[in-house]
Amino acid sequence: MNKFSLALFCILCSVSTGFAQCAPDLLPPTITCPPSQTVFLNASCIAIIPSYITLAAVNDNCTLANDIIISQSPAAGTTVSGEGITSITLTATDASGNFTNCTFSVYRVDDILPTITCPENITAYVDAGMCTATIASPGTPTTADNCSVAAVTNNHPSTTYPVGNTTVIWTVIDASGNITTCTQSVTVVDNINPTIICPNDTTVYLTNNQNTIFVNIPMPSAFDNCSVASVINDYNNTNDASDAYSIGTTQIVWTSLDVANNTDTCIQIVIVLDATPPTIECTSYNLFADSTICGTLVNMNLPVVQTNTSVTYFNDYTNNDQTPSDIFNTGTTYILWTVTDIYGGIASCIDTITVSDFIAPIIFCQDTLIVNSQTGLCGAYVTVAIPAVFENCDNSSLINTQTGGTDASGIYPLGTTNVSWIMADASFNFVVCEQVIIVEDVVIFDIYCLENKSVVLNENCQYVLPNYADSVAYMSDCAIEIIQSPPAGTVLSGEGSSMVTLSGTDASGEFATCQFEITRELSNAFAAIAPADFETCVASNTIAGNEPPAGYTGMWSFVQGSGSFADATSANTAVTFISPGIHILQWAITGTDNGCGIPTSSDLLTVTFFDSNCAQANAGADMEMCMPQNSVAMNANAIALPALGQWSVITGMATFANVNSPTTMVTGLEAGITILR
Length: 677
Hints:
It is a single chain. The chain is mainly β. The chain is built from 1 helix and 62 strands. The strands form 23 sheets. A 4-stranded mixed beta sheet has the order 4-10-9-7, with no helix packed on it. β54 and β55 (572-577) form a beta hairpin. The radius of gyration is 53 Å and the shape is flat. The chain starts with a helix and ends with a strand.
């Protein structure tokens, strides 16, 4: 036994006999892996696999435990990312080369919380007529995580927020279920004043020589989009103004306060008169505006007063007792007259002056405008002058039916366009005039026909006409509907030729037409495709041609060489060669007579069959690299003698250190694709 063989044996010594006996050690050592371990991902969502070798328990029949070699895969220092499980394999090898392994799991755990920064706090105002505000989105928080963010939610999915402060809690959850929250404040302010409507003014009379009289005052009507907090008056500072009132006029200011401290006020008048107050009767004036001004001159009379004593007059227009005489504008003017007797008795009434405007505006349209069409437009841009107008009042409007505004300038289509100009004043008096704009077409309409075409009949010996109308060019500034005859979708059968006519009419009524010829030809609507040629060292191989179309059949056959097919009519089948050599196989597809003959197609496959003991070559996986690197070590399979391997360059530039070495270094690579065999 030589020294190399002795390395495979364990020396067993028999103490009892005193002789040394040797036997081969064929038993692998035993190894016990540690339980499942845990690594924690760092801020970059990665972790470094440590060494677990010292955690394993090993034993062997010959080799001491400390001499047993333990290896780890993946090795210590391997970088892993993301939560999940990494399987670790520990392998124990004794001095005789026997080995065994065990496997345990390392759990990758992300315990780092995600971060979240809430949007800025929001202050919004209530919607009109509502006690809430609609906020489509309170914003988007800024989130981050060392691995990935799984979801971002908040506790207020509704877009409706009540008055006051709403705390929106935003929550971010990462892919590991770690959670972080932040809060955002959404403040809704009620900025809508309440509405208060005072009771009607009240007039009462003193009797029996009283100095005061108790007056029952009804409550005002108060409304608010949220709720009314209080309604008080400034007479007795309560919500009930019913009280004792002295002779004369008392102004009561009612104030409505809502829960947001918004207020609204109204005024109520309480008049206390003596027992026989004067009476007053005002006049309503209904007049018409003059033709040259937006109003009319009104000479007014004093109101008619009935009284037992003398009275003094006062009106709020002249602020004295003089009768107003003035030009009053259109609309309604109210003048308050007040008379007071010597006992303090008061009476009031209102003169109403209504001036109506029945004077229609005057408008003069421009003459008919004739322009030529412009290149690139199906018409022309026309600058239209505004008509001359006159109106006794300034509050009038002028529009046209072409643009709906005061300027009718714009693009007008070919032909005649009638533009109506309408002028109306605030009193709904209006006048209309018409203007004619004519755009004449100066572009000659023409169709540029397609070239004659040769087309291929389909498997049914037919050709279906496509839509040529959409692809034809024509000379016109307007979009033209091109009519095709025969129309798209028409089925043409058999070989031959047909004329296709394209015609159309432009917006000016010009007609144009053209023709081109369609020649129908026979051609196979399919092609048989055999797989790529290949070399093999095995007698039985699977080959796959393309599947025949529906209604067609396929057939494999030998053109050169010999062998057998598992199913000669199947595109995907197995072929077995009888002897080594070059075999040429044919895949043929045959159709049925569709009125144009029997279509056939075939393709050849060349297979070079070496004997079953030939060497197999594997050049290794394809590689990519970046300049300036221009060298790399190859990794082909080793070949047992007497077979010989040799490297060669198919495309590109390369230099081999040893053309016969499967792991040779190749240098001199250039940018681009280099193919080595």
